[in-house]
Amino acid sequence: MNNPTQHQSSILATCRRAAGTALALAIMLVPAILATGSAQSQTYTESVLHTFTNAPDGASPTGSVLDAKGNLYGTTDYGGDSACDAPYGCGTVFKLDTTGKETVLYSFTGAGGDGANPWAGLVLDAKGNLYGTTTAGGNLACSAPDGCGTVFKLDTTGKESVLYSFIGSPDGSKPESGLVLDAKGNLYGTTRDGGAYDNGTVFELDTTGNESVLYSFTGGADGSTPEAKVVRDAQGNLYGMTKVGGAYGYGTVFELNTTGNETVLYSFAGGTDGSDPRGPVLLDTQGNLYGMTDNGGDLACVPADGGYGCGTVFKLDTAGNITVLYAFTGTGGGGAGPDYSGLVQGADGNLYGTTTTGGDLACFAAYGWPYGCGTAFKLDTSGKETVLYAFTGAGGDGAGPIAGLEQDAKGNLYGGTAVAGDLACTTGPLSQGTVPGCGTVFKLTIAKLTKTATTLTSTPNPSTYGVAVTFTAVVTPAPPDGETVSFMKGKTVLGTGTLSGGTATFVTSTLKVGTTSVTAVYGGDSNFAASKSKPVKQVVEKAEE
Prior knowledge:
Layout: E1 35-36, E2 44-51, E3 59-66, E4 72-78, E5 92-96, E6 102-107, E7 115-116, E8 123-124, E9 130-134, E10 136-137, E11 150-154, E12 160-165, E13 180-181, E14 187-191, E15 201-205, E16 211-216, E17 231-232, E18 238-242, E19 252-256, E20 262-267, E21 282-283, E22 289-293, E23 312-316, E24 322-327, E25 335-336, E26 344-345, E27 351-355, E28 357-358, E29 375-379, E30 385-390, E31 398-401, E32 406-407, E33 413-420, E34 429-430, E35 433-434, E36 440-446, E37 453-459, E38 463-464, E39 469-476, E40 484-489, E41 492-498, E42 503-508, E43 514-522, E44 531-532, E45 536-541
Parallel strand pairs: 38-45
Antiparallel strand pairs: 1-2, 2-36, 3-4, 4-5, 5-6, 7-10, 8-9, 9-11, 11-12, 13-14, 14-15, 15-16, 17-18, 18-19, 19-20, 21-22, 22-23, 23-24, 25-28, 26-27, 27-29, 29-30, 31-33, 32-33, 33-36, 34-35, 37-39, 39-42, 40-41, 40-43, 43-44, 43-45
């Protein structure tokens, strides 16, 4: 079947073969905390919910979906039945319940028409059935001996059915994307290859198993090689990206309307605007699209795949104007190479995602890999990027987060890593050696903030007009020295003071005659919660003549 050496060209290349489908799950059993993230606005702690061992539970998780009860259903690219593509395995569908117990629901065999190597996540219907794709298996006469991939269904009893086997032309080949399910039960997806011009397709699979090619990419200005799923708007239009092609050959963002007409919304030029978009786009309620490119952006950054630039986060508005919100640098602990990862937008309007490299550059350095093991990051509405966590690949931690992130109602984040975890587990041989570890499912939990209380006093009180008044704020427990307390009159900042030993002062002699109500406000940080004092009524009397 698909020998890992055919797909992986670096120590983390497993993660560069997975679709950018976000992991999502409810609160699960949280093992011991491994490390603390470096976010300034909010501290996160990482915990590993499951560590993969290849056989029989799988290796290299590539995406998942959450049911109403909080159970997680996902896929692994390798592992499972070690007789398939021995000894690597051809992948699994698994369930991770709310206690952290993993159950293999199905192991792909790659034989008898079955699929192999699911490189994308799952979609769940209202009855609890799961749908997904495999990039290999199915009709083994297509792209012999591997096969061109399948669309499959896994029902609630664990029975797997191959709904469709791709044959290359004209229907498509090698689907690396997840699926989109409409209200009528029709499925939509992309194939990386195949179609009328062997440059990939967008397809629909109806409830009777009939596949329709909605569009075949020509490889020219319209784009080529879609590697991620499409998104669907309320009118039924589909949006996605192609890795290459377009006006400049560096990929596109496209729209496919309900009549099958494709419109290129943007062609990447391969410079600071980005290049090689591999993941899915995110559609907001105003019709704007957000996504990431794997290369381009900061061209001084040299990525692991040898291209130019370490990728971008971008916004494409409804008028077709692109804005680069952030360019990854891969330095100073920052991430690089978002690869197949997609974005999730939190209730706070911030964007969250992953990079497969960058972060802790000491990770896997012993294997001759100087590029780091990836990060989870936040991009706020002002364009400021914060690394929430840098993966270490040691002590049970994962490396190479490939499936993006999902945020729960409490703000916690979930994802998967392609490698590391149990370093005794091996996915398969690479050009630089053996992949260390078979991946993890992880959770980033918002650390509980320490509650604070702020008290305020003033002296002298009453005071005389023109005489200096000292306002003293005490914050307990004491936050770090150097942080700021604001002294407020309503919404007006009268002045600020710097904390030292939990105390900050502000001196003024400009208060008007009469009574002024003043409060002290501590804004909080990643560990200490904000607090506000009760008002102090400062009385200022007229000076004696």
